[in-house]
Structures are given as C-alpha cells and as structure tokens.
Amino acid sequence: ITTTLYPIIIPKLQWWKWSGIDQPGGERGHWGWIPRYCLKGGEWDKAWRDSIRMLTVLCRDPEDPKRILGESTIQFMAHNQESTDAASGDMHIIVHDEPPMLAMWRESEARTMRVGGRLIVAMTWPDDPSIPVDWLNDEVYEPGIRGERDHAWFEMYTSDNPNLDQKAVASQAADWSTETKNVRLYGKSLRFSNRVHPLFTDQTQHWCFTCGRPEHAGENADAHGIEDKFRCTSCGGPHVAEFNHVREFEVSTRWPAIWLLDPHPRKPHMFLWVQVDPSDDLWVIAEGLNDGDPVEVKKHCDRVERELVLEVALRLIDPNMGLSPSSTKRERTWQLEFEEASLPTNLADDGEVGRKTLNTYLAPDLGRWQPRIHVHPRCKTLIHQMKRYVWADYKLASERAQLQVPRDKDDDFPSLLKYLMNSNPSFGMLHGIAQVIDRRRGGRPKALNSRQDRNRLAR
C-alpha cells in the first residue's frame, strides 16, 4: 500500500498537486480532485490522519457552498489484507483498485447492503490467464455488460486517454502482440485465452479480413457502405466487419433440423436443435437439459419441436455415452434406451477435426460478411460453456510439446457442436431426408425416425 498510496493516489487528491504530461495547468493533466474548501479545517494536514490512513472531507451544499451538510471519511486499505479485517461497519461506497479476492468482494457486499451502498472495481484484466478471476467474470463483468442486476460495466481505452502521450502509446503498442494490446489498451480479458474455440463471442467485436483475426476498429470517415464502415487500427484496412455469434432470429419452418444428444447417468441429459439454411449456414435454435428418463426427454422434445414447428431430419448421440450402459438397465445402452422411447439416434463421429471445422464456421466469412454459425440467446448454457471450454493447463514445462487435450469441464454442448461439424451438415442432404416422409397429423412430414428409413435413403 505504501508504494501505491503515497506516490500515486494521494497526489491525485491534493488540490495543489498536478498530475499529467503537460506543464501544470495544461490540457493533458489535472490538479488534485479535492478542493481546499472541502478539507476539514481547510488544510490537508488537519483533514488527513496518517496513522489510520483516513481523510475527512466536508460535504457542502452545491446550491449554497457556504452551507456544510456533513462530513465524509475516506479510508485507504491494503489490497492484500484479510477479508476478516474488513468485517465491520457500513460503507456507502467501496472502491477496489484492481480485482480483489472473492472473499473480500463478499465482505464488501455485506458492508454496503444495509445502507444501499455501491461497489466499484477499477481494473485492468490480469495478463496472466492463470490468475483466478472467473468469479469476477461471472458476477460482475457479464451482468455489467448486459445491464443485469443493477450492474454496469464501462470500458475505457488507453488510446482515448487525453492525459497520455498517444504518440508514445502507439509506438509501444506497435511492438506488442494482439493479445497484449487487447489487455493493455482495450481492457479485454485473457482469462479464457486458452479457450478451445477462442473466436466465439456474445459481444459485438470487429473482424479484419486483411489481418484475418479480431481487431479493434474505429469508424471510417470515408465509408461508402457496410463493407468499409470501420477501419482496422492495426493495419489501417477498411475490410472490417462487426460480428457476434449470439443474436435474435426467427426459427424457419422450412429449414431441416438436426437434434444432438449427450446422455448422462448422474446429471441432466443435454441436447441441441440446429437448423441448416439453404446456404449451409447453421442456426442453433434451442437447447435442452432434462434429468428425467428417456421417456421424459421424448416429451420434452415433442413439446419444443411442436412449438417451433421443426422438421428434425437427423438425430445424433454422443458415441461414447451412447454405447455405454444406461443407468436404468445396465445391460442396455443409452442409444437403445432412447430408441425404445421413440428417439432413435445415429452414433455421432467423435473425430477431432470437428473442433477445427467449428472454428472456421465461427470466423466471419468474406462472402457472407458474418460467421457461418449463429446461436439464439435462449441457449444460455451453450453460450456459457463455449466461453469457458478450455484446453487443459500444463503442469510441467516439459509437457508443452504434448498434444493439447480439452478439460472435461464445460464440454457438453461444445462436444455436441463438434459432432455436428463432423456430420458435414448440408441443406440439400437434410432436406432430402426430410422429404422421405410418413404423413401424419394433417399431412405434416415425419422425419426419418428409424434406422431402416435412414439406411434405405442412404442406399
């Protein structure tokens, strides 16, 4: 605390101290933020108690500055203190400089809740992905950017800071990698930089087709249309597109669908519905989690497929779990259990190529000016897992030459998308399957729900 508080923070509060790159009084900088007439006794030495690092300021009526409404105290505490040291008192505002530990954040919530106070964290995301800030991502960042639970999140770019020498900033940034620039200049997180599918995003980003990767972009003053609306800050090129994989869209009643299933003996069965459009782009329209037996899953599927008016042309099951004994009858496999519940499935292809193929679908396509896979916001678990599905961390430096293996955590829905990619879905093939029908319920086509039907079409 002594290496930060006294040389950096306190001078920004003292009215006679100047902070900035210009000479005192210049445009790029500021004087101390607390006016002299707001200090108790009118002097810093009278308002500041160094033994407890506490500053007392006068709260004056903004309509009548001569009228003092009361006093406020600001206490500066160490970032690395134990949470138990903060386990008392009521605070109207608690500000954390850089991410605190979860225990301290919880204590801060308790200290502010009784007086309707506010919690603020001013931070740069750690550039070490191993630092545990998952809780901050889940509880503060994501609710903040969505405006949920009275949270708000503001991103301030170093490149927009008027108090810095931007020529020096640009010179240094030219030597940095894209990942370092995203953290140091634009406030992006590296926590999940080892994601299996790093391009997936539920926040609007920019893709530079010249650089072939996500880049920060600014408005192009010379734009003549959507294809040159932005300009890449790295290469200066105008071929930049906005992209976001999560978006609202209407479900088509004319596009064939694929249903993918990952059965589980000890947690809910998980499944997805994906439609394929005439351009062979993919639209993830719904997800399902059901902890019942296959019959209950069948009822769940019937309800969703009836409400969305879906034509399911193909049903795929996780080949590993599909051939494993079910929890109800150990001598029978999950695939057989679901087939007897009128949900016959084919074993999916578990090949690793599906992950690479999915990454190509996640990248914006130059001809379409958008990604080739889209996810409806209702698929909340899929979105959550795609953002947290990571490669297993290496524990020894000698292991870095080994083939990477994804962690088992949060792998359910990403694995289903891998199976989807391995099936080489195309509108023509699936639409043809859907037309081999058994008409029922007023002429509605029935998908191929038996192995015989699918084998007959294949022949």
Which terms would index this structure?
alpha/beta; six-stranded mixed β-sheet; 18 strands; disordered C terminus; 19% strand; 459 residues; three-stranded antiparallel β-sheet
Could you walk me through the main structural features you see in this protein, from its secondary elements to its overall organization?
- The longest helix is centred in the middle third of the chain and has 15 residues, at 294-308.
- The chain is elongated, with a radius of gyration of 28 Å.
- It has helices at residues 2-9, 44-47, 102-113, 134-146, 166-173, 178-184, 294-308, 319-322, 334-340, 353-362, 380-386, 412-422, 427-435, 451-458, and strands spanning 18-20, 29-31, 48-49, 54-60, 68-75, 93-97, 118-122, 205-208, 213-214, 217-219, 230-232, 240-243, 256-262, 269-276, 282-290, 311-317, 346-347, 373-375.
- Helix 10 crosses helix 12.
- The strands form six sheets. A six-stranded mixed β-sheet has the order 17-16-13-14-15-18, sandwiched between helices.
- The chain is built from 14 helices and 18 strands.
- Residues 395-402, 437-451 and 454-459 have low confidence and may be disordered.
- With 459 residues, it is of the alpha/beta class.
